Amino acid sequence: MPTKPTIARIWRGRTRPDVADEYERYIRAEGIPPLEKTALGVQLFREDRDEEIWFTTISYWADMEAMTSFTKGEPTKVHHLDRDPEFLIALPERIEIHQILVDEQSLG
């Protein structure tokens, strides 16, 4: 039986519209693959607003221990990608850690 996640780790960052497509390619190539290899699941969201583009990454973990093993220490510490300062309007200062209380999906 597959392990169900109990923890969601949420990161959010904002870019200017003129670099959003390039940042999306960059985060897909550099930020998502390590999560795909270690987390139980990962989602990447994009919200296009008038003045800025928001990206949100949610990764799902079996427990805090699994997530802490991935982050090699404090799970709430932000681990910026090398080119984040180039693309992001401001470097995010925190990661959100949420306990998953309900995990039901009806997609069909």
Let me know the largest β-sheet. Answer: 4 strands, antiparallel
Total helix count?
3
Q: What Rg is obtained from the alpha carbons, in whole angstroms?
A: 14 Å
Order of helices and strands: EHEEHHE
CATH topology: Alpha-Beta Plaits
Question: Overall 3D geometry?
Answer: globular
Structural class: alpha+beta
Runs in which pLDDT lies below 50 for 5 or more consecutive residues are none
The CATH architecture name reads 2-Layer Sandwich
The number of distinct structural domains comes to 1
Q: What's the rounded overall pLDDT mean?
A: 91
Q: Report the top-level CATH class.
A: Alpha Beta
Strand order of the largest sheet: 2-3-1-4
Count of individual beta strands = 4
CA(first)-CA(last) distance: 22 Å
Strand content: 25-35%
Helix content: 25-40%
Descriptors:
108 residues, alpha+beta, Alpha-Beta Plaits, 4 strands
Q: Can you tell me about this structure?
A:
- The protein has 108 residues and is an alpha+beta fold.
- The chain has one domain (7-99): Alpha-Beta Plaits (2-Layer Sandwich).
- It is built from three helices and four strands.
- It has helices at 20-38, 64-71, 84-87; strands spanning 7-15, 41-48, 53-61, 96-99.
- A four-stranded antiparallel β-sheet has the order 2-3-1-4.
Tell me the layout of helices and strands.
Elements: E1 7-15, H1 20-38, E2 41-48, E3 53-61, H2 64-71, H3 84-87, E4 96-99
Antiparallel strand pairs: 1-3, 1-4, 2-3
Outline of the structure:
The chain is of the alpha+beta class and 108 residues long. The chain is built from three helices and four strands. The chain is 29% helix and 28% strand.
